[in-house]
Amino acid sequence: MRILVFGAGSLGTLVGGLLASVHDVTLVGRDRHVSRVSKTGLDIVGAESAHVSPAATTTETGHGADVALVTVKSFDTRAAAEALEACDVDAVLSLQNGMTEEVLESSLDVPVLAGTATYGARLVAPGRVECTGIGRVVLGALDGGTSPLAERVGKAFRDADIRTLVAADMPRRRWEKLAVNAGINAVTALSRVENGRLASHEAREVAHRAARETARVARFEGVRLPNRVAREAIDRVVDQTAANRSSMLQDVEAGKRTEVDAINGAVVDTATKYDYEVPTNRTLAALLRAWERGEGLR
Ligand SMILES: NC(=O)c1ccc[n+]([C@@H]2O[C@H](COP(=O)([O-])OP(=O)(O)OC[C@H]3O[C@@H](n4cnc5c(N)ncnc54)[C@H](O)[C@@H]3O)[C@@H](O)[C@H]2O)c1
Ligand SMILES: CC(C)(CO)[C@@H](O)C(=O)[O-]
What we know:
The chain is of the alpha/beta class. It has eleven helices and 14 strands. It has helices spanning 10-19, 31-40, 77-85, 101-107, 148-159, 170-191, 203-220, 227-240, 247-253, 264-273, 279-296; strands spanning 2-6, 24-28, 42-46, 50-52, 55-57, 64-65, 67-70, 88-89, 92-94, 112-117, 120-125, 128-133, 137-141, 164-166. Helix 7 packs across helix 10 (264-273). The site of pantoate (PAF) has 11 residues, from helix 6. Residues 171-290 form the Ketopantoate reductase C-terminal domain.
């Protein structure tokens, strides 16, 4: 399968590198990283180990592929979609956090698959990516149901030994993941703690409230996500990723823009459509945006 990875940073380089063991992969990323990959190949270290030689380029347009993986940060999704419009790809799969598939679907006239990834990835140097945790990719039709395309892409991932589930209920899974990110990311970023600290801390109640609000908004959108399921998902992920510093905490600690707009911001924006108040998500988004627009970003 011909696979284009648009946004070869941490996650894109890890997933693209693993796929490169059996598929024709092209990484689209930034210069120092893609130059090193082009010259000396890519080292995958940590929980996965490989040396592969995918094509790598900074050129954003003119590519042909059976599927393009979108792995830019959520706030770069619109630019990625504009670049992909000038490519010849037959399908797109997002592995991003946040509700980004709608941006891709509104811009592109090819099928957009929804995806979530719980692999941990960290680009440690140009040409070297660390797998910080083996998780799973879940993918499927954006609106749910079975999809031959999703089955083909899922097989391509499994053929590269990537733990992959093809699911027919991506709407519910996307909203459940959004509830998890809405609760865990913002609370850990603002309190500067790893995920596990929420288990024994009153801040967990803030994460639960953000998740419950997200579940209620999901139900407005016609997605059956009970408050209990959202709350239990928070507790499960806090337990399973106890030692993790969430991606948002890592962004804050690095002085980098966060994905709050596509996470808590998306909950607020969607709730507004229904004239429904989501005070916890609104507060979390406001505090993180204040940090970003204050002294936060370096
Ligand atoms: N890193 C992880 O462990 C992980 C796990 C699950 C989900 N995610 C999600 O995956 C997405 C990517 O996360 P990440 O940690 O890999 O971020 P990252 O910043 O490491 O990678 C994104 C890369 O895309 C590049 N990029 C952006 N626009 C580009 C363009 N127009 N042309 C070429 N390159 C471009 C950036 O320079 C960057 O290198 C996020 O939504 C994140 O929440 C990450
Ligand atoms: C599940 C999660 C919150 C674990 O840290 C991850 O999606 C993240 O960090 O964004």
